[in-house]
Amino acid sequence: MEIYKTRKEATERINELKRQGKTVGFVPTMGALHEGHLSLMRCSKRDNDITAVSIFVNPTQFNDPKDLEHYPRMLDKDIEKLEAEKVDILFAPDEKEMYPEPDTRQFDFGHLDKILEGKHRPGHFNGVAQVVSKLFQVIPATRAYFGKKDYQQYLIIRELVHRYMPELDIEIIPCPIIREKDGLAMSSRNLLLSPEERKSAALISQVLFRARELSSTNTMTIEELKNFVIDTINQNPHLKVEYFEIADANTLLPIENWYEADKKIGLIAAYCGQIRLIDNVEFN
Ligand code: AMP
């Protein structure tokens, strides 16, 4: 695997490969790699000649300094996993390389960055847009892969390219959520849970799956289903729901009746102890 620490070297290499007629798939990550990340790399390898991965814990998207401080970092272990997946290129810059001077750009995504995660993590999506717009310039890929685990982020990235980088010829590809055996959505933050918390965390996805079943029986209103999800999860002493919303999966605008949208999605953020977890489930 080729490893680049500077933007200049990485861009030169990608452009050289593209001049040779190669297609490039790009998977941006913050490291502490798990099967969720690896699944994106496998999608990219399926679709492209070359797969490039970035590992960069982006400080500008953390609205909580403690979260940034505790975020797991394990570059050597990650490199072993990338080698095993036969990833071609790793871009692993340090903070100075990505932000030689502070990034003061302000992005606007309409309602999309002001609801759900955007509302509860002020500035988060602006930081995501800052880093991803820089990364897309460093790695001018043919396709970029994002997990539906971070569903709102996927929609924001699509909008970022549409609104702010229309000249960039990059296809944004969403990939399914990869889960642990008990249903918990894989996340680097799961490493921070105590064994007891880890057990409780599985309830979040289990209740979402139950909600999906209940929704298909047409016996509950949206309000009733939302209350069921929030109350059931909050009964566990380790868990506290921050929000649960049922929304139109195309716009993420909340809906009040099932017939208001064709594609519907339930999105949740919940604290498990001190650790904030997110998950979602698409309804039929
Ligand atoms: P992160 O390192 O958390 O910034 O995630 C990097 C990419 O991996 C993002 O596109 C995430 O949506 C994706 N990802 C993280 N966890 C999962 C998962 N459990 N299943 C699928 N994709 C995931």
Beta-strand content bin: 15-25%
What binds here, in terms of ligands, is: adenosine monophosphate
What is the CATH class name of the largest domain? Alpha Beta
Helix content: 40-55%
CATH fold-level label of the largest domain: Rossmann fold
Count of discrete structural domains:
2
**Strands side by side in the biggest sheet:** 1-4-3-2-5-6
Structure write-up:
This protein has 284 residues and is an alpha/beta fold. It folds into 2 domains: 2-175, HUPs (Rossmann fold, 3-Layer(aba) Sandwich), CATH 3.40.50.620; 188-277, Pantoate-beta-alanine ligase, C-terminal domain (Pantoate--beta-alanine Ligase, Chain: A,domain 2), CATH 3.30.1300. The chain has 10 helices and 9 strands. It has helices at 7-19, 35-47, 65-70, 75-84, 95-98, 117-120, 124-138, 151-164, 195-216, 222-234, and strands spanning 2-4, 24-29, 50-55, 89-91, 143-147, 171-175, 239-248, 264-272, 275-283. The strands form 2 sheets. Strands 1-4-3-2-5-6 form a 6-stranded parallel beta sheet, with helices on both faces. A 3-stranded antiparallel beta sheet has the order 7-8-9, with helices on one face. A hairpin with a 2-residue loop joins strand 8 and strand 9. Helix 7 packs across helix 8 and helix 9 packs antiparallel against helix 10. The longest helix is centred in the C-terminal third of the chain and has 22 residues, at 195-216. The radius of gyration is 19 Å and the shape is globular. The model has no long low-confidence stretch (mean pLDDT 97). Adenosine monophosphate is lined by residues 29-30, 36-37, 39-40, 146-147, 149-150, 175, 177-178, 185-188.
